[in-house]
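testing teh design pipeline on a random one, pls ignore if ur not involved
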């Protein structure tokens, strides 16, 4: 059977279907010479080069006979009437060399049939009019032609083929003059003709092909008389013809090539002959249709070529190009043959290995095919044949440990054949009734298995039928006695002895034969169970995990902890609908799918790692992408077989041929704004381009990875460095698009993989400089900065001048206002100082007070020039009345209040003779409210008032009367400190409650006792290390510690302590402290 995988004809873009010559250039592109143009192929599309009479840089003639690439990458193209051409892939320009009249240094003829480049760099050109040694440097050369009667000249001018042997001797094949050997020193030729005998002879004077193999032997193809192999050492010739039974397809030899593994590929007029170079045995390779009597489909080979990946390209006459892909043909395929051989039917449903050399294959409607593996021969067991098989649709097979072969059918029941018998026994009743154990209870046997006790388990549409060979009876396991579902698609006896049962709609049951218990795994709403309830296949791996193929993914079950791990398409599976499972010796799991081919699943080493998944489809040699449930088996020698709708595949996993060819990758073209970017050389050889910013609005790169096994499976990834943060996702798309690329430097990179995922990580790249628009250039930025800075400078200058002018005007106004304010301040200060003198004048002098209270001090420190605190003293009826008053506010407002308070106290005590402290405060309160119009009946509601501590001292009685308005009295006696609180309301202010009545308190004092009256200015002063208030506690402790000192020293101590505490802080209030010792 012909093994090619691709046919390239005109429909796929080939310019013409007669392919005279094939080469692969050093980059990896394939070139085909046809009768209608030169073709370059990249696995996806063709680029066609044809003659254009109006373009001297085009191909000179469309009929291409031969192609050669030199060491510089220049293509040399021989045409049939247009002479010799060169093509430079970098510039895309053709150059032509022709016969030039009587110029003997030009080509001898314009029909160039063959080309050869020797080790000296001479290009040998075989034409229809002689041989030509072409000097590529000068474009001239030397002709070698036949001269009649001279046997040292070329035997015939129509040169058909050339070859160079290991001795650097040139061999020349001609159309009617046999074979020539050129003597370089003498410039003469030795002739080998048909009539010279077998020792030096050949079988035809029309030589069509020459090849020197790795042994140095010369292979000579003839037009109609077969193949000669000439040994230059022995001068002996061996001949192969179609008639000698050697296996040669045809005696019309067009070309011979030797592959890298030593095989000889021989192109003939009716297919390709493949010869083993050691045994010299041949195999004829033709298309299947060629086996018929119809000769219109004969493969007439015109050319052969092996590429750098080992693929063999076959140019034909009228059928385009065919490719034999070594690595693509991974799986052997077995089908029903057109001549009546092969399988009995292509719908394969099940397998059973009978012995190491024999496998039974169950088919749908076509019985059983018996496959002899040693001879790849097939025989059939059909319905109602000699074996008395009663049904033809076989969907399950089993050979048990006793050698009995069990056959399950679709709708026909269960059959068995004993080892020494040829005929089948039927275990199916004619009519299904309540069974007594002699027959199966259903006629469709979906699966068969044998447990470790030798019992045979048959899964059906009505549960499981279990056959015991000892009793020769069936027992039944159905939903009635614990099975979760009656439709059973798979049964797997695990190493633990438990039976795993896959059902159609209820998941998998685990049956324990020792206890009869059944545990079910099914799909759960929370997602922790199976991924699907349809289980079609079950296997156990070497780690004890159970694997299930379901209608929605692959499931792995850990029988110990009952944990289920699902795998889906998102993990790399081509489909979630899985049918069959088999494992190999490498730990891989092979999975057949319903319509997406075959999968090699390699579990991750770790429990939670990602698996490695490889997908195969019919392009890899599968019978089809669709497989059947139950059609899978692993044979005793490790071979695995899977069946589907078009036969079955067999393979040894360790022998699968992987594609190890790393594909060259190129940037094929660059488009900008929908048009091809014109450059001085081809895009694939460019390393740097510059683009205008307008062109960078839309960039389009077309790339190609040159691997021909399955180009549609080649993968690509792109990255525009400077634009993309990372590689764009892998895929089969060969185009990268970018929009709105800003000005700057970029590098476009592409990497490609072959059809088996082997990456060319070096890839291809091109540096791109996008010229920015002028407004994004550095000089424009610099100009803008200069203009901006100049504008700022000008603005600053103008603004400065304006400000300076305004400043002068303002300075004049400020100076005038300053003078006015200074005068006003002087006037106000003078007034306040005058007020201070008045305030000091009305205060009783300390000397006057000391006449009556000898041991006392008064600490008086106004915050401002005038004070809101004041002390008051009067002598009435032998009593000393003294008060410490804190008026609302300080400064001028407080001074005004102090004047009011001072006058009222003088009226109350001196004029009215009131000496009781509480009554003094009552009348003082009334006087302040009256003076400030405070209270309910007044229109002016001010909150101004004063806090007062007042004492009346009876020195004779040693008695002190005290009243306070929001101020206390500190008393230090023989019993220690005593706080005498005043009333909790002030003098004056808005009175919204009942009339205020101040209370009077009497204290009996003794000699040495002390009392203190004070405002809140001392205790409220901020200071100390943390800037906090002095507070009453610290004030009281200070008075306690100073108690033993004379009162005048206490006053000095308090003043010094106040300054120490205040430090750099501003004085916050007026300060008044009065201390008296008895």
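output:
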């Amino acid at each position: 059977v012909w093994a090619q995988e691709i046919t390239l004809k005109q429909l796929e873009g080939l310019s013409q279907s007669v392919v005279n010559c094939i080469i692969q250039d050093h980059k990896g592109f394939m070139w085909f010479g046809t009768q209608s143009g030169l073709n370059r192929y990249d696995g996806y599309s063709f680029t066609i080069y044809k003659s254009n009479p109006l373009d001297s840089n085009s191909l000179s003639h469309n009929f291409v006979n031969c192609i050669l690439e030199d060491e510089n990458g220049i293509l040399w193209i021989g045409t049939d009437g247009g002479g010799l051409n060169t093509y430079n892939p970098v510039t895309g320009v053709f150059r032509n060399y022709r016969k030039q009249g009587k110029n003997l240094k030009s080509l001898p003829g314009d029909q160039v049939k063959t080309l050869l480049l020797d080790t000296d760099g001479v290009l040998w050109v075989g034409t229809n009019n002689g041989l030509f040694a072409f000097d590529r440097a000068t474009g001239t050369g030397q002709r070698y032609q036949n001269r009649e009667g001279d046997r040292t000249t070329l035997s015939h001018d129509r040169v058909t083929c050339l070859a160079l042997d290991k001795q650097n001797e040139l061999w020349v094949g001609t159309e009617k003059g046999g074979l020539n050997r050129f003597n370089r020193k003498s410039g003469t030729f030795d002739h080998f003709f048909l009539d010279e005998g077998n020792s030096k002879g050949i079988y035809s004077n029309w030589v069509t092909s020459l090849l020197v193999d790795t042994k140095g032997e010369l292979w000579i193809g003839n037009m109609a008389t077969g193949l000669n192999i000439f040994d230059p050492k022995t001068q002996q010739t061996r001949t192969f013809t179609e008639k000698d039974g050697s296996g040669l397809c045809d005696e019309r030899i067009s070309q011979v090539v030797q592959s890298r593994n030593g095989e000889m590929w021989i192109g003939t007029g009716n297919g390709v002959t493949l010869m083993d170079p050691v045994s010299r045995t041949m195999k004829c390779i033709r298309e299947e249709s060629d086996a018929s009597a119809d000769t219109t489909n004969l493969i007439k080979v015109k050319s052969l070529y092996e590429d750098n990946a080992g693929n063999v390209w076959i140019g034909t006459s009228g059928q385009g190009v065919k490719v034999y892909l070594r690595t693509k043909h991974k799986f052997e395929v077995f089908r029903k043959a057109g001549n009546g051989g092969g399988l009995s039917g292509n719908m394969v449903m099940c397998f059973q290995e009978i012995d190491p050399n024999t496998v039974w294959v169950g088919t749908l409607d076509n019985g059983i095919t018996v496959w002899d593996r040693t001879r790849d021969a097939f025989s059939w067991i059909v319905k109602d044949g000699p074996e008395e098989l009663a049904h033809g649709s076989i969907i399950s097979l089993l050979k048990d440990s006793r050698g009995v072969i069990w056959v399950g059918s679709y709708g026909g029941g269960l059959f068995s054949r004993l080892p020494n018998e040829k005929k089948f026994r039927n275990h199916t009743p004619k009519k299904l009734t309540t069974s007594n154990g002699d027959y199966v209870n259903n006629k469709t046997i979906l699966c068969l298995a044998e447990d470790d006790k030798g019992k045979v388990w048959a899964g059906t549409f009505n549960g499981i039928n279990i056959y015991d060979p000892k009793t020769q009876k069936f027992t039944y396991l159905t939903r009635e006695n614990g099975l979760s579902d009656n439709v059973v698609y798979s049964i797997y006896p695990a190493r633990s002895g438990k039976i795993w049962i896959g059902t159609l709609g209820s998941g998998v049951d685990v049956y324990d034969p020792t206890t009869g218990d059944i545990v079910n795994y099914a799909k759960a709403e929370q997602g922790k169970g199976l991924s699907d309830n349809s289980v079609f296949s079950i296997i156990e791996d070497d780690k004890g995990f159970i694997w299930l193929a379901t209608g929605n993914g692959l499931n792995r079950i850990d029988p110990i902890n009952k944990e289920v791990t699902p795998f889906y398409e998102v993990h790399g599976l081509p489909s979630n609908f899985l049918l069959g499972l088999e494992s190999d010796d490498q730990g891989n799991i092979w999975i057949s799918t319903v319509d997406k081919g075959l999968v090699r699943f390699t579990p991750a080493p770790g429990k939670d790692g990602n698996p490695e998944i490889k997908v195969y489809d019919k392009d890899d040699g599968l019978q089809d992408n669709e497989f059947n449930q139950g059609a899978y088996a692993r044979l005793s020698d490790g071979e695995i077989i899977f069946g589907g709708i078009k036969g079955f595949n067999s393979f040894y996993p360790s022998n699968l041929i992987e594609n190890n060819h790393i594909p060259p990758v190129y940037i094929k073209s660059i488009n900008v704004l929908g048009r091809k970017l014109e450059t001085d050389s081809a895009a694939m050889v460019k390393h740097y381009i510059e683009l205008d910013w307008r062109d960078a609005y839309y960039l389009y790169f077309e790339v190609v990875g040159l691997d021909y096994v399955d180009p549609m499976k080649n993968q690509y990834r792109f990255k525009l460095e400077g634009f993309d943060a990372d590689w764009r996702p892998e895929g089969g798309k060969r185009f990268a698009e970018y929009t709105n690329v800003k000005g700057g430097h970029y590098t476009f990179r592409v990497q490609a993989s072959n059809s088996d995922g082997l990456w060319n990580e070096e890839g291809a790249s091109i540096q791109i400089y996008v010229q920015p628009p002028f407004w994004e250039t550095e000089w424009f930025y610099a100009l803008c900065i200069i203009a901006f800075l100049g504008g700022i400078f000008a603005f600053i200058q103008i603004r400065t001048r304006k400000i300076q002018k305004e400043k002068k005007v303002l300075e004049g106004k400020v100076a005038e206002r300053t003078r006015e304010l200074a005068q006003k301040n002087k006037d106000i200060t003078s007034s306040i100082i005058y007020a201070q003198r008045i305030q000091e004048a009305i205060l009783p002098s300390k000397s006057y007070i000391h006449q009556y209270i000898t041991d006392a001090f008064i600490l008086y420190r106004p915050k401002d020039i005038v004070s809101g605190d004041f002390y008051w003293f009067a002598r009435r009826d032998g009593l000393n009345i003294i008060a410490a008053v804190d008026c609302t506010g300080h400064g001028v407002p407080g001074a005004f209040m102090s004047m009011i308070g001072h006058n009222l106290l003088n009226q109350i005590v001196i004029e009215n003779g009131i000496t009781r402290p509480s009554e003094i405060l009552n009348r003082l309160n009334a006087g302040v409210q009256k003076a400030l119009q405070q209270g309910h009946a007044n229109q002016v509601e001010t909150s101004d008032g004063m806090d007062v501590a007042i004492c009346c001292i009876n020195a004779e009685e040693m008695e002190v009367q005290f009243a306070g308005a929001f101020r206390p009295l500190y008393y230090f006696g023989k019993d220690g400190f005593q706080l005498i609180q005043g009333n909790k309301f002030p003098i004056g202010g808005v009175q919204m409650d009942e009339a205020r009545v101040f209370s009077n308190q009497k204290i009996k004092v003794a000699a040495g006792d002390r009392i203190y009256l004070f405002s809140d200015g001392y205790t409220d002063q901020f200071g100390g290390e943390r800037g906090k208030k002095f507070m009453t506690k610290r004030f009281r402790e200070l008075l306690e510690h100073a108690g033993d000192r004379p009162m005048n020293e206490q006053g000095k101590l308090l003043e010094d302590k106040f300054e120490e505490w205040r430090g750099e802080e501003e004085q916050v209030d007026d300060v008044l402290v009065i201390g008296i010792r008895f």
